[in-house]
Amino acid sequence: MGKEAAVVYMTMDYNQFKRLVGNRDVTIRRKNRIKESIRNFGYILNPIVVNENMEIIDGQGRFEALKDLKLPVYYVIADGAGVKECVAMNINMSNWKVIDYVNSYAELGNENYIRYKKLIEEHEDLTVDEVYGMIKNKIVTNGYGSREIKDGELYFTEDRLSQVSIVAEWLDDHNAVIDAIPGSRRVKRTGIAWVLQNTSTDWKRLGSKLSERYVLIPPVTDTKPDLFLSSLSDVYNHHLSAQKCIYYDTEYKKYLRGQE
């Protein structure tokens, strides 16, 4: 016996639909793009998917656009569907960004993600990937952060939030000079964050020397963070006695060996 076709319903009662907690928000740009398409080419029937509670699983953007245009909404009901199904459907439509996963898990009450989101919102110049590197003490994350975040496996304690927040504030204060250094912004920020968290560096001196001598740092690449650390050492060690010099590339290699 073949599988029964889903029943497609139609309504103009927009109030019966609900936003699924944990679903990503619809941006104005996305909604306007859908509305423009409907105006230019008409609405090709593509029912939105809701669960038995009328929470929208797939088609939130289409729903918002149809509501604005006062057009009928066609929908099918998928009993028991939730956030996992919502994510799976969106992977084949408009792919979720990492920040969408952060917002989703945070809204569902996961405290690790709530802390992560808070840090990103308080330090807008830092990207999701840079914040992950700072949290995990990694200069090059190789995409692992995205996988861990998407799988809901992020572990980020309150104590760690306090530690990383201080580093993030230092980066905010020196954002202009960091941006003036050519090359990979991720390695620049996660590299400096690693230095601040793992060496006996005088933070005030590093900021001062960086402002004076950043032009001596060659373009930073994703593949060779140790070269950036070496250049950063030269900047910091300028006019320091031999006993007080810190060689960041050497310290970083020791750190990596300890992680093996």
What can you tell me about this protein's structure?
- The protein is of the alpha/beta class and 260 residues long.
- 55% of the residues lie in helices and 7% in strands.
- It is built from 13 helices and 5 strands.
- A 5-stranded mixed beta sheet has the order 1-5-3-4-2.
- Strand 3 (48-50) and strand 4 (55-58) form a beta hairpin.
- The mean pLDDT is 85.
Helix content: 55-70%
Helix-strand string = EEHEEHEHHHHHHHHHHH
Count of structural domains:
2
Strand coverage percent: 5-15%
Largest sheet: 5 strands, mixed
Q: Count every helix, treating DSSP H or I runs of 4 or more residues as helices.
A: 13
From the spread of the alpha carbons, the general shape counts as: elongated
Strand order of the largest sheet: 1-5-3-4-2
Radius of gyration: 24 Å
The termini sit apart by 56 Å
Average pLDDT figure: 85
Structural class: alpha/beta
Which residues form runs of ≥5 with pLDDT under 50?
A: none
Strand tally: 5
Short description:
This protein has 260 residues and is of the alpha/beta class. A hairpin with a 4-residue loop joins strand 3 and strand 4 (55-58).
Please give the structural blueprint.
Layout: E1 9-11, E2 18-19, H1 28-41, E3 48-50, E4 55-58, H2 60-69, E5 73-77, H3 83-91, H4 98-107, H5 111-122, H6 128-136, H7 144-150, H8 158-173, H9 175-180, H10 185-198, H11 203-213, H12 225-237, H13 248-259
Parallel strand pairs: 2-4, 3-5
Antiparallel strand pairs: 1-5, 3-4
